[in-house]
Design brief:
14 helices; binds heme C; alpha+beta; two-stranded antiparallel sheet; five-stranded antiparallel sheet; SH3 type barrels; 336 residues
């Protein structure tokens, strides 16, 4: 299985500056821009800069730590790590700070923003209100977010997610009907009109945080590169009804913490004092003494309803990309 290389927040800038990127200790790093001689001269006469953002962790602590993190939300490079840091405490100013920065965030930072708002019950209501007020587009919530929000068991939030997303668990008949509907739509003629490049962008937004395809992507779910992707039946059954057949390794546990937080994820490691839980955005290490209750579910980590928000064209594009035999080009990325 190809190893996924990590990218620093400066990756796109290196590429835009013409860098040749090479694997370096698990990261894609720039090795050269113009060539050894001009670069050697530049360092002697001006100055050289080395991207060290893959090398360490930033720890922010002290009285105004959260004010600092909130002020970093406007920084294109530091917004994403700052958002992850803000998820660790219920600072009441955090939701408003995130909402103010939201429209200008990059796509991965938007996902981190929504994760931060949906991980903490104290922030979840702020997220709900922001979507109701159209400050965060409803389409930015994934099926995964909705499940995370439902894990709190809050009546008001449950009623709202049902309103915008439909019932929590669809019956088998409903799923079979849904699979049949998609299959009748995805005829070979229709699939010829699909745009794999547009489909790739949808895959990056809805699937890639968990799945690797053509060597790129997350590892929460199986690598899809070698799977039976050409087969529409295989794709539809697995996407529409992910919990129909799942290996134990991928079953979700809902973990309720004493301070009111809740996590929905796969318990991937356990020792005497800690639990490692794989959630969509990475691994959370939880102290066992802070855990109140663990409920194991029969549900897959892969959420239901992923195709629900897609238009017909988007569905056709996504399926076209999933069935392609090799990697396709990328749509122009918008600079943050
Ligand atoms: C939150 C993580 C997550 C997201 C997002 C996600 N998946 Fe999955 N997926 C999983 C997990 C975990 C499994 C394995 C368990 C199962 O089959 O339900 C899986 C299984 C699958 C399988 C079956 C793989 C096999 O074992 O043969 C397919 C196909 C698939 N996903 C496609 C998709 C597509 C397409 C998307 C985006 C529209 C997507 N997934 C989004 C986590 C995810």
């Amino acid at each position: 299985m190809a190893q996924t290389l990590q990218r620093t927040p400066l990756f796109e800038r290196h590429v835009a500056l013409g860098a040749r990127m090479v694997p370096f200790a698990g990261w894609e790093m720039p090795v050269q821009y113009e060539g050894v001689i001009p670069e050697d001269r530049a360092v002697r006469t001006d100055c050289g800069v080395f991207d060290v953002s893959h090398m360490g962790e930033l720890e922010v602590e002290g009285m105004h730590a959260f004010d600092l993190l909130q002020s970093l939300l406007k920084d294109p490079v530091l917004a994403e790590p700052a958002l992850k840091g803000l998820a660790s405490t219920d600072d009441p100013k955090t939701p408003a700070a995130i909402l103010a920065a939201y429209p200008d965030l990059s796509q991965p930072a938007k996902r981190a923003a929504i994760n931060t708002l949906s991980f903490r019950p104290a922030f979840a209501k702020g997220l709900m209100q922001a979507v109701k007020d159209n400050k965060i587009p409803r389409k930015d919530l994934t099926a995964y977010t909705v499940r995370q929000l439902r894990s709190f068991g809050d009546k008001e939030i449950d009623a709202w997610t049902t309103e915008i997303w439909g019932v929590a668990k669809t019956s088998n008949e409903q799923k079979l009907a849904e699979i049949a509907k998609y299959k009748s739509l995805l005829t070979s003629d229709v699939l010829k009109t699909g745009d794999a490049i547009a489909g790739r962008a949808l895959f990056s937004k809805t699937c890639m945080q968990c799945h690797t395809l053509f060597g790129e992507g997350g590892k929460v779910g199986p690598d899809l590169t070698g799977s039976n992707r050409q087969d529409i039946d295989y794709l539809m059954v697995n996407i529409v009804d992910p919990s129909a057949v799942i290996a134990k390794d991928y079953m979700v546990s809902n973990i309720y913490m004493k301070d009111g937080d809740a996590y929905s994820g796969i318990i991937t490691k356990e020792d005497e004092h800690t639990l490692s839980v794989t959630v969509e955005s990475g691994v959370q290490v939880l102290q066992k003494e802070e855990v109140k209750e663990i409920r194991r579910s029969e549900l897959s980590m892969m959420p239901e309803g992923l195709l629900t928000p897609l238009s017909k064209t988007e569905l056709v594009n996504l399926i076209t990309y999933l069935r392609s035999t090799s990697q396709v080009g990328e749509t122009q990325r918008v600079q943050p």
